From TrEMBL:
Family annotation (CDD domains): cupin_SPO2919-like
PANTHER family in UniProt: CUPIN TYPE-2 DOMAIN-CONTAINING PROTEIN, OXALATE-BINDING PROTEIN
Record has Nucleotide-binding as a keyword: no
Gene3D superfamilies the record matches: Jelly Rolls
All copies of domain Cupin type-2, residue ranges: 52-121
Keyword Metal-binding found: yes
InterPro entries: Cupin_2, GPI/OXD, RmlC-like_jellyroll, RmlC_Cupin_sf
UniProt entry keywords in alphabetical sequence: Metal-binding
Protein name, per record: Auxin-binding protein
Native source organism of the sequence: Paludibacterium paludis
GO MF entries: metal ion binding
Pfam families (alphabetical): Cupin_2
Length: 167
């Protein structure tokens, strides 16, 4: 393979079975073994990851995005999609589409007795605000030119006056 071909492979192709895995745990509800596939690629407007969630766990809190759209593909196992106040069964080969906005707060929960693995694909629109209805928090973030994110997590009840600390 030429050097140019190797560079293209590094920027454009990922095999999720060969990717570095990160274990994220926050007892008692959250645990996932995940790989963030988009990191280090040429992707500018798409993010992708694969999460494996053990029985009884979830990968992230119930939330919704103001800008980003998400798609989930259940690769193996089954569980529950908590969405818009409802609990919907999901299983292997289901494809889930979540548009941005407060109409579709969502969370995948492994309610089965075996691991559930899913692929997440999302737009990386910026600026982004993500809200967490269970805790009353929001995450405001903006993408930088280098592809990293700048952000802050706040409670909606802790908002500041527009003129506070201004000269």
């Amino acid at each position: 393979m030429s050097e140019r071909a190797r560079e293209l492979v590094d920027k454009l192709i990922r095999n999720y079975r060969d990717a570095n895995l990160e274990r994220e745990v926050r007892d008692p509800l959250y645990e996932t073994l995940c790989c963030r596939l988009g990191r280090g690629t040429a992707a500018c407007k798409l993010g992708a990851s694969v999460d494996t969630v053990p029985p009884g766990k979830r990968a992230c809190p119930y939330h919704f995005h103001h800008a980003q759209e998400e798609m989930f593909v259940i690769l193996s196992g089954e569980g529950t999609l908590r969405v818009a106040g409802e609990m919907l069964p999901v299983r292997e080969d289901n494809v889930i589409f979540i548009p941005p906005g407060p109409e579709y707060p969502h969370q995948l929960i492994n309610t089965s007795h075996t691991s559930m693995t899913y692929l997440s694909v999302s737009t990386q629109d910026s600026p982004e605000i993500c809200e967490y209805p269970d805790s009353g928090k929001y995450f405001a973030a903006m993408s930088r030119a280098d592809g990293s994110w700048f952000g802050a997590i706040q409670k909606t009840s802790a908002s500041l006056d527009y003129w506070q600390d201004e000269p």
